[in-house]
Amino acid sequence: MEELFKLIKGGNKPSLIAAFVNSFLGIIKGVAFFFTGNVAMFAEMMHSFGDAANQFFVFIGSALSKKAPTPRFPNGYGRIVNLVCLGAVLIVAILSYETIKEGWHHFLHPATESSGVAIALGVLTLGFVLELFVLNKAAKEVLHEVGVERKGIAIVQSAKYLKRAKPATKLVWMEDLVATSGNLLAFLAIVIAYFTDFYRLEGIVSIIIGLMMFYVVGRVFLDNARGAIGETDEEMLVHIGNLVMEDPHVKDIARLEVIKEGEFLHVELIAETDPSLSLAYLDDVRDHLTTLLLNQKGVTKVTMAFDEDDGDRAWKHTVTKPETEKGMI
Fold it and tell me: Cation efflux protein transmembrane domain: which residues (predicted)?
């Protein structure tokens, strides 16, 4: 039980906050839809419930991914978060389809009048504010995860570094960007329809919201499919390779892999060195390099071996290091 609480404590905080916020918004949007019958409100209700389910799953997956390696699973449980994200997007895909279908039905058979406009607009305004709050929290978490100092508006700045964020945080950021935009679009659709009697617009907006949800499904699916298979972190591979090559005892790198295991990185290295060095000396070199690599951001496992230098230079990457708060790792 103690281990379970420890794992839950290590779960992705933005996803848990987002899950509770979207559950609350889904309920009040459902009540608003019941009283108004507004299809744009229906789309937002489906969107909020879909995001809430997604984010609860992601929180659980991010917590379980922190479980320590076992003899049966020596590489740990890092990829669980990728598998959970793959499962979670199926929920969003189903709700996206229902949202588009309802929007198309409303476009073909629009309402002849709009009721409960004040209720709908009030709920959407509240939704916009809360979703923007969650999006800002996720943006700050992105900057924290990549080690970049916040300058200006976090939401705008974090978009540049989103690719390097953890899978769970990236999912929350993308879903809440779409959710915030969806609230705004639904608000505008209801206002315009009320003053112009162009009620088909609510159906069009519902379709747009559904398509935005499908876009998130596609992006998240591709990102986490690569992670579940075992994707190389190209940027960290070059950075780690150059760190190793700075050691005077390393002549070349015969093999280097930096594999993403969920939120973590596992490094496998075969370094070429002078064959005249003793095993005891190389053991000290390996201890030094292992400690150095484990101090790099996200690296949790290092496997290293040595081979004699063959005289041919295989490592030809230039020095490029990831940014941190001070510019370099």
Answer: 16-225
